[in-house]
Every structure is written in structure tokens, then in C-alpha cells.
Design a protein that fits this description.
2 domains, Aspartate Aminotransferase, domain 2, 354 residues, alpha/beta, binds 4'-deoxy-4'-aminopyridoxal-5'-phosphate
Length: 354
Amino acid sequence: MSRFFSEKYKNLVPYTPGEQPKTRQYIKLNTNESPFPPSEKAIEYAAEAARNLQLYPDPECRRLTEAVAERLGVSFDEVLLTNGSDEILNFAFMAFCDDTHPAAFADITYGFYSVFAEINGVPYTKIPLAEDFTIRVEDYYDLGKTIFIANPNAPTGIALTRNQIEEILRRNPDTVVVVDEAYVDFGTESCVPLIRKYDNLLVSQTFSKSRSMAGARLGFGVGCPALIRDLNTIKYSTNPYNINAMTMAAGIGVMEDEEYTQANCQTIMDNREYTAAELAKMGFTLTDSRTNFVFARHPDVDGGAIYRALKERGILVRHFDSARIADYNRITIGTREQMDTLIETLRTILEENI
Ligand code: PMP
């Protein structure tokens, strides 16, 4: 730390992204990226946009916002595109949380929520998940706090139904409820259809997972026009050009190629069910994941040991050291070939360890 670093950040513990190793060719199942390349249209439009990089991008992000709004069945003024969904989540902490509106989220959930709370000086409460890692909906009633719910949750993969989320919205009419739908395209009901009924609902989604664009950094928020206006105030006060021109063009390309996205999601869901069944046969316990990853532990082998043994053999998965989930590994769903390699490798590791 330099002697110039602001007092207010000196205890900040930044978010730790998953490893992106360059030294060795790993089968990368650690950051929930798609195993499939982006849509050809996305690549083509981004290349075309590169010819005009001397110009600033459209700060309104009009064409892409219209395309996203149309796909979701909402209006232009109900959507805000951001630099990954991380940015819309940070904007939500900035816009809707303070000392009188502290934040609340699960004890086991996306690790960035507490970092966003810390950097914005927002007090927060962690609400413990039940023993089986499900969210107890009643714990979220009448909280008087800005609520952040990843649905499906990460890293557990477990989803609430839209009705359950609606109950939380109904019981918190005077505070914002943010539903982070980063993994919604792998088999969960979206809450977007509720935005006209609840003026306190903000839904976030991303192009990073189902749309194979993690490297482009594109996400968005959906909510009533007043919420979106507030978030725009934050955007225009930090970075009006938050989406670069190539990403914007790629986003339009992928929106025009919905069949490709749908087909990839279906393949990933099929591979997830296949992987889950194979791991269960080996004695793993798994959560009911509705995402592009599984969350698994083995009764006989320590989670950290499995992580290290896989890494030695060229497969990267994500292991979290936190107490309640240290036995588990989060394994991104890749191609069928990658999953077969993973399954074979785990079999070998278990034979050696038991
Ligand atoms: N929410 C959840 C639950 C996530 O797991 C992630 C991915 N790390 C994000 C949001 C952010 O993704 P991105 O910024 O790539 O849209």
C-alpha cells in the first residue's frame, strides 16, 4: 500500500477472480465461462465496429438496448446495459443502499456483493442459508433492507421459483430487491415479467455465460423506468461510455442469433445432467444446480485435495475456502469431451485416495 492510499479503502479486501493461467493448457472449468465460441454474427459485427474505433461509442447504447428490450418484452426505458453485470450490481449498491438502506444477502452467495458493499461504505447483513443450502424465503420478509438474491444462487446453483421471489417482493414493498439472474438461461424462471407489478424490483442478467461473451464484458439491468433513471444517473456520473463499441456491436450480433444461444444452453443443460449423474455414481453429493456448473463434494475426500489433484492433472475447478462450503468444488459444465475427461480423472483420483 502506498502512503497515498485513502483511509477509506485501507481495509478493503478485493474480490478474487478465478484463475486465468497462461503457463499451461488447462481444461478450464473454474470461472463458469461457456465452452462455446461467441456467435459468428457477434464476431463479424465486432470486427466491423473496430473500423470506427476513433469514435466514442453511443452512450445511450440505443440499438443494443432496443434489441434486449424487444427480446425481453419490455421497453427501452426499462433496460440499462452495463460493463458486465458486475457493473449493474455495483450501480445498484451505489444507488439503492446507504446507512438507512443497508444491504442484505445470503451468507453463501456471489462473493462480490460484500465487496461492493464495502467499497461503497454500505452496512450489510448476511442471512444464513438453510443446512441444505436453500434460501429460507421467510428470512427475507419485512427486512427493511436492500436485498440481493442470486437466482439461481452461486456457487450452490440452487434456484427459487418466481412465486417465491414474488413473495419476497410483496413483503418488502419499500426497499429495492435485486435479483441477479446471471445463470437464468440454464433452466430457471426469470423475474423480468414482474417488473411492471413491482416498482422495487431490479433484475440483472449477463452476456457472459449463456451468450459466450465473458471477454466482452456485457450485462444489463431491467426494472421500472424510475429505477433505470436512477441507475443512469450513476452511470453518467461515473462512465457514460461504459460499453465499448466492439462489445456493443457483438451484443447486437448475439441478439440476432438467439437460436445459437438456445442450442448452446440446451447442450450445457444436457451435459450438466450427464455430469451430475456420473458424479453421483462415484459417490459425490450434489446440489440441484440450475446453472452451467455443478457443486459437488465427496464424503471420503477433502474438497481442497480434489481441487489440487485435478489441477495437477490439468483440470481447473473452483474451490472456496469458506467454512460451510470447503468440502465442495464448483465445476463449470464444458463440452461432453471435457466432461468425460473430468469424470475419468475424478475416477482415478478417487481410486488413489480411498
Ligand atoms: N452474478 C453472479 C452470481 C456471478 O456468478 C457472476 C459471474 N462471476 C456475475 C454476477 C458477474 O458476471 P459478469 O460481470 O461477467 O456479467
